[in-house]
Amino acid sequence: MTRGLVVGNWKMNLDHVEAVHLTQQLVSVLASRPAEHVEVAVAPPFVDLRSVTSVIEAERSAITVVAQHVSDHEHGAFTGEVSVAMLKRLGITGVLVGHSERRSLFHMDDAVVATTMRAVRRGGLRAIVCVGERLETRESGGERAFVRAQLATALDGLADEGEDGVAIAYEPVWAIGTGRTPTTEQVSDMAGEIREEAARWGFASARVLYGGSVNADNAAVIAIEAGVDGFLVGGASLKAESFGAIVGACNDCYAERR
Ligand code: PEP
Questions:
Q1: Quick check: is 99 catalytic?
Q2: Beta bridge partners of 119
Q3: What was the pLDDT predicted at 1?
Q4: How many CB atoms lie within 10 A of CB 132?
Q5: Which DSSP helix (H) or strand (E) runs through 257?
Q6: Residue nearest to atom 6 of ligand 1 (CA)
């Protein structure tokens, strides 16, 4: 059985000195509470990646490091962008693709999500593709079709690159950073839709994560009742204690499922 996956998205927080500090704290929290059923990953800002991987290597920690974004181009005149090859050279193993903040603030539409997914998978990195509806879409009852369409565009034609390298994060836009979470039934329903849609494109065993205001208090209930395979965590990943507690909740849930 595969392990759960908990990813901490640090967003545009922590300079490289602060990032080293948090990584050291996280290594020690995870060493004191081993979570053998969960893979733990962090997604620091680009400028922190090397420092964070250095700490992890030096500590021989199993934490993996993913980037928050990557260009869909291989190289060239794309000022401000970073390529898949550059990330691989740094020892980065995966990338978040299509986070809602990239979609809403940086014009990353479904077509760019799709080309980025191809660049990531063909380049040999793992992708954590983010999908999720806005509040108005949920209120109008269109959330299932919306998320399925996002996923179809992202996964179409990718199966040849291998099924293992894709995880899917369901992040309703209205739950990100708001303190508001869907009911566990809503998460569970959407996880079912996502699994069905993913299977249509050759990703039947992709891990489905939930993201949106997950914290140390609600993680256990969501993990157990919604039946997701882990979490994508924003705010609560900036403190080693709260992130460690979320990892622990996911680990307990996976241990039960075995
Ligand atoms: C996120 O940024 O992916 C996220 C889920 O943020 P938060 O946990 O802060 O809602």
A1: yes
A2: none
A3: 57
A4: 27
A5: helix 240-257
A6: 234
Per-residue tokens: 114: 């799709």
Give the largest Cα separation in the chain, rounded.
51
Name beta bridge partners: 208: 168
Asked if 233 and 190 count as a contact pair (C-beta separation under 8 A), the reply is no
- Band the pLDDT of 151: cuts 50, 70, 90: very high
Rounded to an integer, what distance in angstroms lies between the CA atom of residue 255 and that of residue 135? 34
- Tokens for 3, please give them: 């392990």
Q: Which residues contact 82 (CB under 8 A, 6 or more apart)?
A: 46, 67, 69, 70, 71
Q: pLDDT tens, 160-187?
A: 888 889 999 999 999 999 999 999 999 9
Burial 188-201 (b: 16+ CB within 10 A, else e): bebbebbbebbeeb
Number of residues that make up the chain: 258
The per-residue pLDDT for range 119-129, each reduced to its tens digit, is 999 999 999 99
How many angstroms does the Cα of residue 77 sit away from the middle of ligand 1?
A: 31
* Rounded Cα–Cα distance for residues 39 and 5 (Å): 5
Residue written as tokens 């399925």? Answer: 148
Are 56 and 48 in contact by the 8 Å Cβ rule? The answer is no
If one residue of 5, 7, 9, 100 were mutated to test the ligand 1 pocket, choosing by the most ligand atoms within 8 A of its CB, it would be: 9
Nearest atom in ligand 1 to the alpha carbon of residue 177 is: 10
Residues of the chain with pLDDT > 90, as a percent, come to 94
Tokens at 187, concatenated:
């998460």
